[in-house]
Write a structure and sequence with these properties.
This protein is α/β, with parallel strands linked by helices. Helices cover 28% and strands 21% of the residues. It is built from 25 helices and 38 strands. The strands form eleven sheets. The protein has a five-stranded parallel β-sheet, covered by helices on one side. The protein has a five-stranded parallel β-sheet with strand order 9-16-10-11-12, covered by helices on one side. Strands 21-22-25-24-23 form a five-stranded antiparallel β-sheet. β13 and β14 form a beta hairpin. The radius of gyration is 31 Å and the shape is globular.
Length: 838
């Protein structure tokens, strides 16, 4: 089959995946004609670009040998009689054609709308252009107060522009929320410093003599000053190809299709925003949401392989976080069903509004609106058209009612993006899925907009899936519980803890975990007394054990800044002890190949030169990487090096459940890669943006934006509390990324704890960090200054000065490396050094 797909947006990409999943034999030859020069990306998360998300993170396309993706080659004509699609470069014959051309932004016909500084908000290129133009500007305006308009307004706010929103309707988001919900949403938005103009239109864009934007003239005669204008006034179906090809189109636009998504030409289909389809005998309409488009993609893929699928109807439910405000609507949100009843809940103090639309007998849920708190959305949306899962008040204000919700019916959709029902989720759990990640992989639920993830967790809990909290066989308590026991009881030894709260003698799981807890609570030198026996191999010798039995030496180089004198010392030490030198990604210099008996001698020289332990061997704060910042870089807006050094010296030696890495970038170009760290800081003109919960490793994760434009004092305060709350509550060997993802309430909950002090812990967390800073002692200085602590650094107890004869080296590229190693690939290059035994 020669299959041509016109368009590579989200729906077009979903169709490609649906076809490939069915085409096991590889009989479909697919050509995809894409207008943009980049493959499909996640438009739902497009605004994440302004929070630091990259094009790679938003990418949805995976290269496939069976798919010929033609980027930057839009279709310009369709000839149904010849079965040909034409582009500016070639003609493509087809046996089946799928139009997934999406929509085009609606641009009102007003004077000055094409002035320099007016932008659309639709593609990655649009956003890049907005970011570039916004540099140095102060004022912004958005034409349109719907979903896209509020996204655009938030983008301008993140770029530092004072922003106005102009909406023709009497309220924001008129298609999704009712009048009361719109009023509550407006309060949230205006509290963020944005100015809202509703019930008015823009009649002209004012321009300066140079042709650039100066502001907007409104219908009431007022004007809004603006240096930059974003037009987000809605979209129109992109149906011009179909019109020119003679295909039937709907009265209000869109390619007219039947329940199989087939156009008036039997071998041409249309899916997504460009398709106008009627449901239950109603008039044909287009849907501007991704879920109906995904459903259409599945229908057409099924039909092409001989199936009989039909469009099941459109789920127009939406849940978004706009300008930090949860907003959701589902079903008949406006109560247009005859006889419908409204049940509303309003809490002005917390800025929460909720409405349920019920049938005339108050038994069936028809729809609803949620503003300010959308935690009930997954359950409510899944119940639309069915019986209420509980008393209305308990659903709208669960904290104020003791009532509970009844179980969802088996056929209720848990994930509307991928049409996954409760029964499907429960079947996957029965087949062995024991966490959200497994359910995502098995059913695809939660991989779309993500709004169903809380419900996935709920179904796991209802199915009795629980991870045991016991740390190991010797303790029934979790690490978090043990931390609190040690802290509150003032326990100083493992022996006391296991005697009073555990059993047995401990193991290689609980001993290092308890050692970390004791160290985090300031229990002194980690190798004194019985603590030494609790440590991991690396901590036992304050160095990382390497593959050949030697150790690495990693002195701290705060912020990556080093003087020539210290650099010379490192070179001399490496030369005198025959060590391999390597500059790391953490902006430090690692020295490899030290025998255990050499470690005190090496560190004596380093300590005397002013170095201290870099804690590369411990579960602790490692490095705070930095760019050169405003000191040297012409793009830098803050002193990133100075801040990085201050942070690294503040948190040095801080023990934690896992290693902690950090970075500070001096501008938005992000040369220090701060968003890939446990905590990252990016400079702005007004201060610092703080990102939390990133990491590299097996499961890379970009950090989330926690707070913007912070002063240095507030920044340090929030990092202090973040680290101490993580150390206090995380599981054993749990990175901050996994810990943050596992927090009930996620980033919003963390913000409430360490900013709003919702748990009343901030004073304790501040005091804990103050104790750490005041009590810090360099472990290697404490070691080399005390002769009684040097006995453990020996290869042989009865011959402490004798080196291990099994450790040998050979020379590669002028440096010592472990002998007997597998030869590196030559890459077809001539040898650049001789290898010799040493």
């Amino acid at each position: 089959m020669r299959l041509v797909v016109v368009g590579n947006g989200m729906v077009g990409q979903r169709f490609i995946e649906a076809v490939r999943a069915r085409d096991v034999a590889g009989r479909v030859r697919m050509t995809v004609l894409a207008e943009e020069n980049r493959p499909a990306y996640d438009r739902v998360r497009l605004s994440a670009y302004f929070a630091g998300a990259t094009a790679e993170e938003l990418n949805l396309h995976t290269p496939d040998e069976h798919v010929d993706l033609r980027l930057g080659e839009p279709a310009v004509l369709v000839d149904p009689k010849r079965r040909v699609v034409g582009t500016a470069r070639a003609d493509y014959e087809y046996d089946a054609l799928v139009l997934a051309t999406g929509s085009t932004p609606f641009v009102p016909s007003i004077d000055g709308i094409t002035a320099t500084g007016c932008f659309l908000y639709r593609t990655m290129d649009d956003l890049a252009a907005i970011r570039s133009y916004a540099s140095g500007k102060r004022l912004g305006a958005v034409i349109g107060g719907g979903l896209l308009g509020l996204e655009a307004a938030n983008a301008l706010r993140l770029l530092g522009l004072t922003t106005h929103i102009v909406e023709f309707a009497p309220r924001l988001m008129p298609m999704q929320v009712d009048e009361a919900g719109g009023a509550m949403l407006r309060r949230h938005v205006e509290e963020l410093g944005l100015t809202v103009h509703t019930g008015t239109t823009t009649t002209a864009v004012r321009t300066r003599p140079d042709g650039s934007v100066q502001g907007l003239t409104l219908a009431d005669g007022s004007w809004v000053p603006a240096d930059l204008v974003v037009v987000a006034a809605g979209v129109r179906p992109r149906d011009s190809l179909a019109r020119e090809a003679g295909l039937a189109v709907a009265d209000r636009g869109g390619v007219l299709v039947d329940e199989a998504c087939r156009t008036s030409a039997p071998d041409i289909y249309a899916i997504g925003e460009c398709a106008a389809i009627s449901v239950a005998g109603g008039s044909a309409r287009c849907y501007g949401l991704v879920a109906p488009g995904y459903a259409m993609a599945e229908v057409v893929a099924d039909r092409l392989f001989g199936g009989s699928a039909t469009f099941p109807g459109a789920d127009t439910s939406t849940k978004l976080k706009l300008l930090g405000v949860d907003v959701a609507s589902f079903g008949d949100a406006h109560g247009t069903t005859p006889g419908a009843l409204d049940v509303t809940f309003t809490d002005p103090a917390t800025r929460v509004y909720a409405k349920l639309v019920l049938s005339d007998d108050a038994r069936t849920l028809l729809g609803g609106v949620l503003v300010g708190d959308a935690r009930a959305y997954p359950t409510l949306r899944a119940c639309v058209g069915g019986a209420l899962p509980g008393p209305p008040l308990s659903l709208l204000a669960p904290a104020s009612s003791g009532g509970g919700a009844a179980p969802l019916p088996g056929g209720a959709q848990v994930c509307s993006c991928h049409a996954v029902t409760r029964d499907t989720i429960l079947a996957a759990i029965a087949d062995g899925c024991s966490d959200v990640a497994a359910l995502k992989a098995s059913t695809r639920a939660g991989t779309g907009c993500g709004s169903c993830i809380p419900l996935l967790k709920q179904l796991l809990a209802e199915s009795g899936v629980r991870m045991p909290k016991a740390l190991c066989e010797h303790f029934d308590h979790s690490r978090r519980e043990l931390f609190d026991i040690v802290r509150v009881r003032g326990i100083r030894t493992f022996s006391q803890l296991v005697a009073e709260y555990g059993r047995g003698r401990g193991c290689d799981i609980c001993k290092p975990a308890v050692a970390s807890i004791l160290a985090a609570l300031g229990n002194g030198y980690i190798l004194d007394g019985e603590q030494a026996a609790l440590q991991d191999t690396n901590d036992h010798h304050l160095a990382n054990l390497q593959r050949n039995g030697t150790y690495s030496v990693v002195p701290r180089i705060p912020g990556g800044e080093i003087t020539p004198e210290k650099l010379i010392v490192l070179g001399e030490v490496a030369r005198d002890f025959n060590l391999y030198l390597k500059i790391t990604g953490g902006q430090r210099i690692d020295m490899f190949g030290a025998r255990v008996e050499q470690l005190p001698k090496i560190w004596r020289r380093l300590v005397d030169a002013g170095f201290e332990s870099g804690h590369a061997y411990g579960k602790a704060v490692r490095t705070v990487k930095s760019c050169v910042g405003s000191t040297w870089c012409r793009y830098g807006v803050q002193d990133s090096v100075g801040l990085a050094i201050a942070l690294e010296l503040r948190y040095r030696g801080l023990r934690a459940p896992h290693k902690i890495k950090a970075a500070v970038s001096g501008c938005a170009r992000e040369c220090a890669e701060a968003r890939g760290k446990d905590f990252g800081v990016i400079a702005t003109e007004q201060g610092w943006n703080l990102y939390l919960g990133g990491n590299g490793g097996f499961r890379p994760r970009h950090a989330d934006l926690f707070a913007s434009d912070l002063s240095t004092d507030d920044l340090v305060r929030y990092i202090d509390r973040f680290l101490m709350f993580y150390i206090r509550t995380a599981d054993r060997l749990q990175r901050t990324a996994a810990w943050l993802e596992a927090l009930d309430g996620g980033l919003a909950y963390l913000r409430s704890v360490i900013v709003d002090d919702s748990l009343g812990l901030c004073d304790e967390l501040d005091a804990a960090m103050a104790r750490h800073v005041a009590s810090y002692e360099d472990e290697w200085r404490a070691t080399v200054d005390d002769p009684d602590r040097l006995w453990r650094f020996a290869s042989f107890v009865n011959a402490p000065d004798t080196p291990d004869p099994t450790i040998t080296f050979e020379v590669e590229r002028g440096q010592p490396v472990p002998a007997g190693r597998r030869q590196p690939a030559s890459l077809g290059m001539p040898a650049i050094n001789a290898r010799s035994r040493a």
